[in-house]
Amino acid sequence: MTSNPLALSGFDRQLLQSTSGGEIARHDWAQSPLGPREEWPQALTTLVSTILACPAAMCLTWGPELTTVFNDAYRPILGDRAARCMGRTYAEIWAEIWDETRPLVDAALVGESCLMHDKHLVFRRDGALKDGWWSFTYSPLRDEDGDIAGFLCIAKETTAIVVAERKRTEAAERLRDALSAGDPIGAWDWDVTTNRVVADSRFALIYNVDPERAAKGTAIEDFLDCIHPDDLAHVRTQIHAAVNQGVTFVSEYRILAPNDDVLWVSAQGRPVLDETGRCLRLPGLSFDITANKRAEMARRAKAAQA
Fold first, then answer.
1. Which end of the chain lies in a sparser environment, N or C, as judged by fewer CB atoms within 10 Å?
2. To 10 degrees, what angle do helices 19-26 and 5-15 make?
């Protein structure tokens, strides 16, 4: 069954609208297991048209050799290999992780859908093997006769999320270490609506603020002035997320002490929201974890020299 000429004309116009579409238009499909594009079954043409129009990273395979077609959003996953992958078999494209993905592919080809969440994979991108975490699905695709002809993969990289969560976990562990070691602890309460931070003397001393002024309340900028310039932008981003998204504030950063020493601080706060979700206050605790941090860095340096 060949594609409807009118639909194919519209499909041809769609191919000119994206990088991957252009590659599909130029590819010599007559030399591939799929055959000339003009003779593709309507089901395949419709599926390719669908993924090209989708903003999510998607690829599909079709035919006994699992010939692969993908959209523009999928190209960053392939990295610098993207220009060489259109029309190749799925096993060729993902040779370095084929042993891990083949059971999922085999399941899709017998009608089973699967979902993988934050799966760790190591594959080649931009000339080097790179660690990454991915959430993706495999779903069977059927032809006009209802037979399984391939599968659809929808993928999303979750590396940044996984790494951030690991850092939060490590920060929480260091907080527990700080508590058990009796490291200095300071408490603050930031009234976001008035930008007034009230803090105890221990918090004030950690942040180089006069304890009497901190007890009466002062602007948050007075406490941010001592943060190391290389860490300040990241801390501001985390504060913004806590206030505007209601997420827990967990951060580690350096503070420049008056004697030119550099201290490490671990801070954690939980936003207080009103019934509309607007942040009213952000109270929390700060820990001086300098001793623990220096010990940790010394261990890492020793391990690197071993």
1. C
2. 120
Backbone angles phi, psi at 137, to 5 degrees: -125, 150
The 3-state secondary structure of the chain, one letter per residue: CCCCHHHHHHHHHHHCCCHHHHHHHHCCHHHCCCCCHHHCCHHHHHHHHHHHCCCCEEEEEECCCCEEEECHHHHHHHHHHHHHCCCCEHHHHCHHHHHHHHHHHHHHCCCCCEEEEEEEEEEEECCEEEEEEEEEEEEEEECCCCCEEEEEEEEEECHHHHHHHHHHHHHHHHHHHHHHHCCCEEEEEEECCCCEEEECHHHHHHCCCCHHHHHHCECCHHHHCCECHHHHHHHHHHHHHHHHHCCCEEEEEEEECCCCCEEEEEEEECCEECCCCCEEEEEEEEEECHHHHHHHHHHHHHHHHC
Give the per-residue pLDDT at 173. 66
The pLDDT, as a whole number, for residue 185 is 77
70 contacts 51 by C-beta, under 8 angstroms: yes
Domains and CATH numbers, the chain: 5-157 (3.30.450.20), 162-300 (3.30.450.20)
> Which residue positions in the chain have pLDDT lower than 70?
1-9, 171-184, 306
pTM of the predicted protein model: 0.58
Query: For position 183, what pLDDT does the model report?
Result: 55
